[in-house]
Amino acid sequence: MRDGNGRVMNHETPLSPRPLHHLSDVRHRVMTSRRLREHGVPASEIAARCHPGGPWQQLLPGVYLLHTGPATSEERLHAALMYTRARAQAIPAQAPRGDEAPYGEAMITGLAALALHRFTSAPPLLRLEHIDVLVPHTRRLRATGFVRPVRTHSVPRPRLLTGVPVAPVPRAVADAVAHLTDPDRIRRLLTEAVRSGHCEATRLHRELARARLLDRAPVAAVLDALLAEGRAAAEDRLYAMVAAAALPAPLWNVELLLPGGPSLGTVDAYWPDHGVAVEIDTRPRLRRDDPVHDEAARRHEHLEQLGLAVLAPTPRQLRESPEQLADVVRSTLLASAERAPGAYVVVLPR
Q: At what angle do helices 201-210 and 169-177 cross, to 10 degrees?
C-alpha cells in the first residue's frame, strides 16, 4: 500500500514522523480516529487497514485496535473510555495530551470497576458483555457495542487502578446492582463490599438509596444485616479503644433522661462524672439536611445545651484512627473540669 507521496506502507510503518513514546503502551495499541489523524493517518488509510484481513480492526465507532486478534481486557477498558471521551458533548477543542486526565470525568463503573477493585464475586473482565462508563449527566451518549454509559448528576472522585480511572466501590456496586436481576449475585456483591472491607455499610446504603434501589429484593434485607454487623463491629472497636488507651471506664449502652422528663436518647458510652457521651455515628443518610441527620443533630445540640459534651465518631474513625480518637476523648474528659456543671440526668441501661 502506498501513501500520498507514493511510498510503500504496511502495518509496520510508523504512523508519522512524530514519535509515540509519549503514549502508554495500551494507548499506542488502541487509538481514536482523531489521534490517528494527528499522527498523519488519513481516514482512507484507516479504512483500508481495517478491511477484512487487514492489520487493524475497529473496536467501537471511531476507536481502533492496531493489531489483529481479540482485544485484551485492558484494551477494551481504554477503548470504552476513549469512545466516551471522543463522543462526549462539549468536548474541548483540543484533546489533552499526555497522561493527565486523558478521559476527562469519565470512569469505569459497575461490574468492570468491581473486577478492578478485585471483587471475587465480580466476573473476569473478558467475560463481561458490557463495560459501564460513568459520565456527567450532560453527556448525551447511547450504549454502543460493549460500552454502556451511565449518566450521573454527581461525579465521584475516581481511583486510578491499573492506569484506568475507576469509580469508588459504593458507586460501582450501585451501578452494578442496577443492571442485575439474580438475587444471589446481588447478595454476594453487597456482602463482599462490606465484609471484605471495601467500604462501610453506611456509605453503601447511601449510594443504593440515591440510586433508588433500596426497595429491590434482596437489597433491603442484606443491607439491614450489614448495617447491624457494622454497628456491632464499631462498638467492639470502641470498647477496645477505651481499654487500649487506659481511659476511665464509662457506662456502656445507656439511655439518658431528665428527672421526670422525656428521654434524651441513648448513647454508646457515658462518663457521668465528666458529662461526656459518645454515640457512634452509623446513621445512613443521603445528605447533611436529611431528617435522620437533623434529628440526631437536634438531640446532640439539646444535650450540649444541658452542659454535656457529645462525641459522634464514625465506624471508619474507630477502625482507621483509634489512637487519635482516644486523644480526643481524653481531652474532652479533662476539659470537663473547666466547664460549668451540667444538668443532672438519669441514666438507665439500654
A: 50
- Whether 223 and 173 have beta carbons less than 8 Å apart is answered as no
DSSP, collapsed to helix, strand or coil, labels residue 58 as: strand
Helix (H, G, I), strand (E, B) or coil at 71: coil
Domain boundary assignment for the chain: 72-199, 249-349
| CA contacts within 13 A on the Cβ side of 348 | 12
Return contacts of 218-224, CB within 8 angstroms, 24+ apart: 218/183, 218/186, 218/187, 219/177, 219/186, 219/190, 222/186, 222/187, 222/190, 222/191, 223/190
What is the CATH class of 249-349? alpha beta
Say how many residues make up the chain: 350
Q: Could you report how far apart the first and last alpha carbons of the chain are, in Å?
A: 83
* Whole-prediction pTM: 0.78
Q: Are 319 and 244 in contact (CB under 8 A)?
A: no
Cell numbers 476523648 correspond to: 329
Q: How far is CA 19 from the centre of its chain?
A: 37
CA angle 209, 211, 226 (to 5 degrees): 40
Q: How confident is the prediction along the chain (350 residues), in pLDDT tens digits per residue?
A: 444 444 444 444 444 444 444 444 676 789 999 989 988 999 999 999 999 999 999 999 999 999 999 999 999 999 999 999 887 633 443 344 444 467 889 999 999 999 999 999 999 999 999 999 999 988 778 899 999 999 999 999 999 999 999 999 999 999 999 999 999 999 999 999 999 989 989 899 999 999 999 998 789 889 999 999 989 999 999 999 999 999 999 999 999 999 987 899 999 999 999 999 999 998 765 554 455 556 778 888 989 999 999 999 998 899 999 999 999 999 999 998 888 777 889 999 97
- In this structure, the strands spanning 276-278 and 263-271 are antiparallel
C-alpha cell of residue 64:
481502533
Q: How far apart are CA 8 and CA 1, in angstroms?
A: 5
Backbone phi and psi for residue 262, each to the nearest 5 degrees, phi listed first: -75, 170
DSSP character for 144? B
- CA 18, distance to chain mean position in Å, is 38
